[in-house]
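Per your request, structure below.
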């Protein structure tokens, strides 16, 4: 039996002269087979200019007045050469119900379809993960006050919130969601499920167990920024802690996969960092032994050597964690450790992650959009799927200070929405991106006590601290999210 797809019917919408696709304009689905190509993809019809400000240094306590502003272009759904007008038909996982059916395993997996990496949901449907990080009620005074005014408990909150998010085209929680509430929702909801992605922080926990780690804004810091991956007890620590962690998830079809850590310091400076640790430190010994095995004296170390070594660090970590995780839970995907900063730009680190992880997860900051050059490099370094697991912008009109967080600042919520459309369209046009998770569900509440230092007062949320959605932002999110499979299918229906 041939697999079936919708043929877009093109027409012009005045006065903007934007081509649009209406698959059911004649009241019927027009079907094509698995190899149909409609010809060249019509050119996009212009971009919208957005002003955005970027910071020149990373830390909390930004002086917002010193942001470097510029004008950036945003491609929107309505300015695409072929602009879908009808929402995709989705199943309970948020997958492409009317798309092709692939082999089903009862759990999420990855596959290639017509040359493009995709997620495949438990029933065999193509899936692009689209979710919000930290899907959880806020803990600040304002959050608690308004939560109590709206809902009796978390069960009422998660049902109401998921109804909203599904309407906006989101179908899951990224990292750090309220798993008790999510599991409750999945137990009572038949028509929709909330996908989620647990984090077990194995290297971070090991560092604290050794009494050498400390909290850093957004992640965990280690001596000389060197993770203790060469410590002889690390594998045993994984074997002791990973299996009991995954036991409660391994039969849950709503779990996409696991993150093992967040934003580890995988850097070119790692080699010098390990070499300057105490000479009895296992990391120091490992670096000395590695150089000896390579026949490289310390006076001959250059950036090529440093690049190879940081890849060795990454491969050691991912190999050990993957072996233990896959033995404990063969059902679910290993999503890596959320590469960030320069680590995502190192070929050796990316390749090591792709070798042992099912999906390379990337927290992407510092650019208005995911650069085409970055995508080209990732796809050349490894034939593997990737997922963007953090990105956002902050609006000046939110009333928040916006003095923390890596996301760029824009003037208003409409601009945040334009950024979202532009950013995600670029991901859908790649051949390797299998989804994204927006950072995050709720704004930072400045009244919170002892907040995580990178989440103090910034407009990161889909919702404000009164649990009200930002209308202009969610309008753009809804416009994109609800037609993401139609845009995805252009990879197959048209030549580039």
């Amino acid at each position: 039996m041939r697999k079936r797809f919708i043929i877009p019917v093109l027409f012009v919408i005045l006065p903007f002269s934007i081509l649009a696709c209406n698959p059911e304009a004649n009241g019927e689905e027009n079907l094509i087979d698995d190899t149909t190509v409609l010809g060249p993809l019509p050119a996009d019809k212009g971009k919208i200019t957005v002003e955005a400000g970027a910071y020149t240094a990373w830390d909390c306590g930004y002086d917002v007045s010193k942001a470097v502003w510029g004008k950036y272009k945003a491609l929107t759904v309505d300015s695409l050469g072929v602009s879908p007008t009808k929402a995709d038909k989705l199943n309970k996982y948020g997958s492409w119900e009317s798309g092709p059916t692939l082999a089903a395993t009862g759990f999420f997996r990855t596959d290639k379809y017509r040359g493009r990496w995709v997620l495949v949901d438990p029933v065999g449907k193509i899936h692009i993960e689209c979710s919000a990080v930290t899907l959880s009620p806020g803990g600040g005074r304002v959050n608690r006050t308004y939560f109590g005014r709206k809902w009796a408990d978390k069960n009422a909150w998660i049902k109401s919130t998921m109804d909203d998010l599904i309407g906006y085209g989101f179908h899951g929680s990224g990292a750090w969601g309220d798993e008790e509430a999510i599991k409750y929702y999945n137990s009572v909801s038949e028509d929709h499920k909330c996908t989620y992605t647990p984090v077990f922080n194995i290297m971070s926990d090991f560092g604290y167990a050794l009494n050498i780690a400390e909290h850093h804004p957004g992640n965990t810091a280690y001596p000389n920024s060197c993770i203790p991956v060469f410590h002889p007890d690390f594998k045993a620590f994984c074997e002791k802690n990973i299996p009991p962690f995954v036991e409660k998830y391994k039969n849950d079809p709503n779990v996409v996969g696991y993150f093992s850590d967040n934003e580890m310091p995988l850097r070119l400076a790692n080699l010098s960092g390990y070499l300057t640790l105490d000479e009895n430190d296992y990391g120091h010994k490992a670096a000395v032994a590695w150089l000896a095995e390579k026949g490289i004296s310390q006076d001959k170390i250059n950036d090529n050597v440093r690049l190879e070594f940081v890849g060795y660090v990454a491969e050691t970590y991912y190999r050990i964690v993957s072996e233990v995780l896959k033995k404990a839970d063969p059902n679910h995907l290993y999503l890596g450790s959320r590469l960030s900063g320069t680590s995502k730009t190192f070929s050796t680190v990316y390749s090591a992650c792709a070798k042992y992880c099912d999906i390379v997860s990337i927290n992407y900051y510092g650019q208005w959009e995911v650069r085409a050059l970055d995508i080209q490099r990732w796809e050349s370094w490894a034939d593997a799927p990737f997922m963007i697991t953090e990105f956002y912008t902050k609006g000046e009109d939110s009333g928040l200070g916006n003095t923390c967080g890596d996301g760029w600042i824009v003037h208003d919520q409409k601009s945040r929405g334009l950024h979202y459309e532009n950013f995600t369209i670029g991901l859908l046009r790649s051949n390797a991106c299998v989804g994204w998770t927006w950072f995050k569900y709720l704004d930072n509440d400045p009244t919170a006590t002892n907040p995580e230092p990178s989440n103090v007062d910034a407009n990161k949320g889909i919702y404000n601290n009164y649990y009200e959605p930002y209308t202009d932002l969610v309008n753009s999110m809804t416009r994109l999210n609800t037609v993401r499979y139609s845009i995805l299918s252009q990879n197959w229906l048209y030549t580039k």
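Confidence is low (pLDDT under 50) at residues 1-32.

Regards,
D.
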